[in-house]
Amino acid sequence: MSPGVEVEAMRQEARLLTIDEAAKALSLSKATVYRLAQRGLLKTVTVGRARRIALADLEAFVEQLRRAGESEVHDVAR
Q: Are the CB atoms for 28 and 65 separated by under 8 Å?
């Protein structure tokens, strides 16, 4: 892997999304994203008073949903 590609990969991993951006990426409401975070199903970080979601954590959450059964996916959003 070239140095430029490694730097870009590090930037993507470090990218922090707002709750609104994560909700749009998941096609969910902001309230559902907050609920997922509150339940510990979606990792968040606090920056000052703002809550953010690392892109890598969002991708890990989606991968976890892919591995889960259809019924589990519906239960997570409730």
A: no
Q: Exposure pattern of 64-73 as b/e (b: 16+ CB <10 Å)? A: eeeeeeeeee
What whole-number distance in Å separates Cα of residue 29 and Cα of residue 58? 15
Tens digits of residue pLDDT in 13-29 = 568 999 999 999 999 99
Angle at CA of residue 36, ends 33 and 41, nearest 5°:
135
For residues 12 and 4, the answer to whether their CB atoms sit within 8 Å is no
Tokens of 57: 């954590």
- Rounded distance between C-alpha atoms, residue 3 and residue 30, angstroms: 37
Q: Which residues of the chain have pLDDT under 70?
A: 1-14, 69-78
